[in-house]
Amino acid sequence: MYEAYWGLKEKPFENTPDPRFIYSSHDHLEAATRLTYAVEERKGAALLTGDYGCGKTVISRLLFEVLPQDKYEIALVTNPLLSPNDLLREICIQMGLKSPPSPPKTQLLSDLNEHLYENMKNQKDTVIIIDEAQAIQDMMTFEELRLLLNFQLNNRFLLTLILIGQPELREMINEFKQLKQRLAIRYHLNPLNKEDTKKYIHHRLKVAGINKNIFSDNVHNLIWENTEGVPRVINTLCDMCLLLGFTKALKEINEDIVKKAIHGLEH
Known about the structure:
Blueprint (H helix, E strand, L loop, with lengths): L2 H4 L19 H15 L4 E6 L5 H11 L5 E6 L6 H11 L10 H17 L3 E6 L8 H10 L10 E7 L2 H7 L2 H4 L4 E5 L4 H14 L12 H8 L3 H17 L7 H12 L1
Parallel strand pairs: 1-4, 1-5, 2-3, 3-4
Helix pairs in contact: 2-3, 4-5, 4-6, 11-12
C-alpha cells in the first residue's frame, strides 16, 4: 500500500525469514559463522538459541543460501512436536524418502542409513535442522536425535544435526547430558543494541530499494527502547510507522509518528 509513496520496491519490514534482509550484527554474523563451521567441518551437532524474534530462523534459512546444493542435502523440520518415530519419519520425508504411514522404527533407520551412505558416496554431506526444538515434549525424541549421531565412520560423522530454539531449549538439553556432550558448537543469539538497531533499519530500507534516511535521527533510540532490540518487534513497529507516515503524507518518520505507532500496537 505505502511502497510507491516512500519510493520502495517492496515492503522492508515483513516478518518472513528472507535471507536477503538479514543484517549482520556481530551476534548474527557469529551465529552464522559457527553453524557454517559446524557443517563444513562435520562437527556432528550444533545448538543455536535465542529469544523469540531475534532472527534464529532467518539464520537457518541463510544456510540454504551459503551451502552449495550440489555438496549438501538439508532436511529442515519446522514443527518437531512429534513422537520420536514420527520425527524420524518427518526427517526421511524432508530428504525425499518415501515411507508408509506408520513404518517401524527399524525401517526408518535403515532407509536413513542407506541414504546417508548414498550421499557420502556422491560426495554430498547431510544436514538436519530442527527448528523450534524447544517444542519437543518427549525426552525420547531427544534421545532419537542423539542416536542419529551414531551414523558415522571412524573418521567422520555422516550427518550434521543443528538444533535451533528459544532459551529454554538450552535448559532442556542441560538435563540431557548425553546429548549435551555431543554438541560441538553452541551459541546464544542476543537482541540488537542501540547502534545495531539503527543500522538494521537502514539496511532493510536499502534492500527494499531506498538508499536514504526516511526515519529521522532522533527516533532510533525510541524504537530500540520500545522493542528491546528484538528484530521481529522492530519490523512490526517500523511497518506501522511507514503506514502512518503514508496516511499523513509525511516526508519522514518523526518521533510523534513512532509514539502513535507504539500506542496503536499496545492497545
